Amino acid sequence: MDGFFYFVKKEALHILRDRRTMLIVLLMPVVQVLLFGFAISTEVNEISFFAVAPNRTEAVRQQIERMNANSYFTFKGYIDQPDIDPVLRSGRAAAVVVFANDYDRLVERAASGALDEAAVQFVLDASNPNNAGTSQGYLQQAFLPGGPAAAGMAPAVRILYNPQMKSSYNFVPGIMGLIFILICAMMTSVSIVREKESGTMEVLLVSPVRPIWIISAKMIPYFLLSCLALVIILLLARYVLGVPMSGSVAGLVGLSLLYLLLSLALGLFISTVAHTQVVAILISGMLLMLPVIMLSGMLFPVENMPGVLQALSCIVPARWYIEAVRKLMIGGQSFPAVWQESCILLAMTVLLVGVALKKFNDKLE
Fold first, then answer.
1. Handedness of CA 276, 278, 281, 285 (dihedral sign)
2. What predicted TM-score, i.e. pTM, was given to this entire model?
3. Are 119 and 106 contacting, i.e. CB atoms less than 8 angstroms apart?
């Protein structure tokens, strides 16, 4: 056992002396969390709009003033009907609000439950469908108080867990799934392959320490670094981005540790397939990073994917981890609520550890 701890110490010192590795491992979580939390956002924070109002009555002016007072809207002025297309094509505004000629009468009819035509029309720039959809939702909400919806024509809307629709609530779980894959799987596989490529692995294997303990000693420092990255991400998410953690924090940490073990097993498996560091990085990037980004639900909802891709996403470990983290961190649920995701991740971990160790022993023989 003394030899095992010696190997752990040796690998830890090797990582600590490699400033580039330490910079990547410790700085990358901070940069990505802050980048996706502040700089990269799917939120539409400012909707500039023009208004077309043939009759600029007091009701029309009050509605525009109410919208302009909202931090999400910026009123650019009044235009005529023929100017709608040039304004949107030039990018001077994201939307045009067209009031009907008899807007006041239609609002009164809506209040009496006899609305037979639209009092307001929204003309949107849909060159970016995501922004157009968000703008439409904001505009509809802006006309709820005191408008045609006052007659009960519009349903009541209640948004749970993320009422402000902040994109950081969605990105943080995805970043956690991506970061741990990169640190554990990619860095571990490159570390082991580097030993094989330089010929030092054979020297280590002839030592009195069993091969399984040598491999474990190389993984433990990366596991500890990943635990440090987990703490950094959780602190940044809670105190910098304001992401709530109303669920089981102990369950979140326990699930993350299981995901770290799974990522380490993936790294070990890659090291048995790759013969050079370049190949290990390519395999890690193509087989791990891209599926995590595209198929895990980090950026795109799994439910909106074709059936084939939905089935393929079931074998991506990050999908189950990100779903579970969202339930625990954002949804405020307890650990029993993610028992299915936990069982899937545990089964994947056991399977990967078994396959990786078998292939590694076959390589030795």
1. negative
2. 0.72
3. yes
For the chain, counts of helices (H) and of strands (E):
16, 4
CB-based burial label for 162 (10 Å; 0-12, 13-18, 19+): middle
Crossing angle (nearest 10°) for helices 317-325 and 168-180: 140
CA angle 345, 349, 355 (to 5 degrees): 145
pLDDT given for residue 91 in this prediction: 74
Q: Distance of CA 230 to CAs 176, 184, 254, 269, 333, Å? A: 8, 12, 11, 23, 20
Tell me if 172 sits within 8 A of 241, measured CB to CB: yes
Decide: 232 and 34 in contact? Cβ < 8 Å.
no
Q: What is the rounded CA–CA span in Å between residue 191 and residue 274?
A: 12
- Among the residues of 181-289, which ranges form H helices? 187-198, 200-205, 211-239, 249-273, 277-284
CA 183 – CA 264 distance, rounded (Å)? 9
CA 47 distance to own-chain centroid: 24
| 142 contacts 70 by C-beta, under 8 angstroms | yes
Average pLDDT over the chain reads 78
State the Cα–Cα distance between residues 117 and 110, nearest whole angstrom: 9
pLDDT digits (tens, 9 = 90+) for 216-244: 777 888 888 888 888 988 898 888 888 88
Written as one letter, the residue type at 151 is A
